[in-house]
Amino acid sequence: MQYQNILVSVENGIAVLTMNREKALNALNRQTMEELKAFFETDAHTIEGLKGVIITGAGEKAFVAGADITEFQGFSAEDGKMLAKRGQDTFFSIERFPKPVVAAVNGFALGGGCELAMACHLRIAGEKAKFGQPEVNLGLIPGYGGTQRLIQCIGKTKAFELLMTADMIGAEDALRLGLVNYAVPAGEEVAKAKELIEKIATKAPVAIAKIIESVTAYFKEDVDGFAKEVDYFGECCGTEDFVEGAAAFVEKRKAAFTGR
Ligand code: DAK
What we know:
Blueprint: E1 6-11, E2 14-19, H1 30-41, E3 52-57, E4 62-64, H2 77-95, E5 101-105, E6 108-110, H3 112-119, E7 122-126, E8 130-132, H4 146-154, H5 156-165, E9 169-170, H6 171-177, E10 182-184, H7 189-201, H8 205-218, H9 225-237, H10 240-250
4-(N,N-dimethylamino)cinnamoyl-COA binds near residues 75, 110, 111 and 134.
């Protein structure tokens, strides 16, 4: 797909996806949501030797300041339901992507922006990062999975507070609450994300994909995550990488995984 609102660059097997609507603080309009969907459902799967994806925001001010409020007017209840479902599906395609997806949060991550960060597997906050779910200020609730993933990330007690007060929190509070994995100086978010992806890339690729599927299974209704773990464990046992990993340990050498 030809992108207008996101930039994608690939270097050393790491794709950096930059949300690129700086004048609107990278707000998620419909076009941007379509581009995210195309990237994670189709285009990213065709990148040869991909180790992982980093999502960040253009400029110094924002990661993503939410859904684009200028597109909100005139929505019916039916429109809202349809768009929320479509947006949730897009964010599922991020959460279920088989390689690590890391949010490098360089500024405001509000509403849909906080939801986007939470759909990623890992989150790095720069010191200018501000997280919040301010939908109640607009007469809304989060529609892209925020009510569910905020509880998953930080627990019900603080999730209720942030969702009902619309308060913003900074990087240190986000780290303390477990919303992010690391807090780093401003400008170092992408570098830290790359470091994590490089580390993960030294591990067995099928096992990493199965970790993502197993952990995601925990949060799926009507899915027994323990049963999934049994299945995926069995699948990993059948890989060449398991043979190689075990042999490398015994032979006291570094494993050379192939992803088979
Ligand atoms: N949408 C569109 N434009 C935005 C924007 C947004 N979310 N956030 C900022 N901008 C624009 C501003 O209008 C301004 O544009 P110009 O006036 O220069 O043309 C420019 O970005 C710079 O913003 P400010 O001048 O306001 O910058 P400040 O530093 O003074 O303030 C701020 C930064 C982030 C505190 C402020 O911009 C702000 O409060 N922004 C809105 C934050 C927010 O409420 N975001 C929306 C959260 S609700 C749905 C599913 C999901 C959702 C909705 C519907 N359906 C399925 C239907 C999700 C909703 C949300 O995300």
